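User: I've been going back and forth on whether these two constructs are worth ordering. Before I decide, could you fold them both?

Assistant: Sure. I'll take them in the order you sent them. The first construct and its structure tokens:
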Amino acid sequence: MRLTNLDMDVLRTLVTAIELGGFARAAARLGRSQSAVSLQMRRLEEQLGATLLRKQGRGLALTEAGDVVLGYARRILALNDETVAAVRGLDLAGAVKLGLPQDFAEVWLPAALGRFARAHPQVRIEARVDRNFVLLEELTAGRLDLALIWGEAQHPGAEVVARLPIRWIGRSDVSFDPAAPLPLIAFQPPCQFRTDAIAALDRIGRPWRLSFTSPSLAGLWAAAEAGLGVTMRTRIGLPATLTVLDNLPALPDIALTLHQAGRATPVVDRLKQILVETVHDGIGTVELGAAA
């Protein structure tokens, strides 16, 4: 039986198109024409003998076969990129200190650090998971090289990695009297999520009260799972026992920014690249899952 070798450029186009939400955006990102991208997708379908995309409204959606191919494509590309990085970065050595919000501790942090460690075994990584204001203090003091922070850039050279919608989150089987103050589960201040949620309620004159505060995200999830109220967060790390609530006022998007302390080094630059790629891949997965 003759084996079929898939073209990694075509797989990268597929992944990019799905993550960006269309062929036109993928074409612009990859520097190709939209017709060339469409031709690549048709050839991939011919190679696999399956339809990967179907029309959905004005756009396209993955078929069941397309969803399978997308998962494998991500793994193939990650291994390819890791191989290239490992060979090119054999001489990388030293240490790098990274700070991340609690949302990423169990979701994307292990994958990003594992990928970096496999490619650059001579680099020592130290990671700190904490709240925004703590990470900013550590960054300013020079105790972190990189930090992912919720909110707009607060340091020169910081860049916005993504913007995500803030959601009301709670149990689907627990309702609250609309005439009574809405019980809120929130971080202790300062917290941008808390500030935006209270502002949204105040704009429509909806009374509220703080039913539970905690310094940890695990505490917020536990209180929401117990039905003590509603909390506000992105979909990242959303426990299976909780859901997004749509019957409350709309909340704004929140920026996810990557801050860097001091001058760039090859080690810091490489970890920065892996972080950005991991976040973009993760966000695409989260949003696709939400839309399914």
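The second construct, handled the same way:
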Amino acid sequence: MTDSALLDKAKVRQSFAAAADGYDAVAGLQRRVGETLLAKFPCVGQSRPLLDIGCGTGFLTRHLVSRVPAAVALDIAVPMLQAAQRNCAGLPVAYVCADAERLPFRDGSIGGIYSNLAVQWCGDLSALLGDCRRVLCADGCLVLSTFGPCTLAELKAAWSQVDDFVHVNEFYSIEQIGRFLAAAGWSRFELETELITQSYPSVMALMLELKGIGAHNVSTYRNPRPTSRTSLQSMIAHYEAAMAGGGIVASYEIIYLRAMR
């Protein structure tokens, strides 16, 4: 998020808790990005546990623990951790329910940190990056993916034709993240961005997928009242009109990061 004041943390916890049971059925983008993240920045040569921040149902955790002796799965929503525990049954994984912005670990106790499309739900990314540096061992690295500001640009544009409320979450740019890393004391880091476009049979199919992965609008500037049927239909009409007669597409800007101590 672009401002901690814009984030309703209770809403974040509630949204992902509610999405836990059906998450895996609609999380194709998350799996695709997670696989790309591991391919770009594989975890090798670590004897200390790896931490998966925002583990969700444990997709990335399973991959990590296959490469290292042990892993720690952290999530803010208990139902997500329970799903991760089922999906990682029998594997050497510790499960921690905690806010990623308040990591409950000793200084230098973690061998490496991975996070896949999770830190965008943190209100103070600068503080999180600093805390990650604190808990990492001397040769540890931070590897993560997050959404950039071009994410769901088509949906934002369609809603902007309906009213002035914030309907789509805002995300940090690659330049902002670079500044946060430097301010948090990271002197060696690399950032790159990728724009992914996905097709949907309808605008409602897109909306249902976002709901299914828990990606609700958690801005405190969202409409405090339920969206009316008229407003929703108007947004859909504007979205479809912008597609110029083609299918429904949605853009996702993915930012990949590796930072080393």
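Notes on the second construct follow. The chain is about 40% helix and 20% strand. The radius of gyration is 18 Å.
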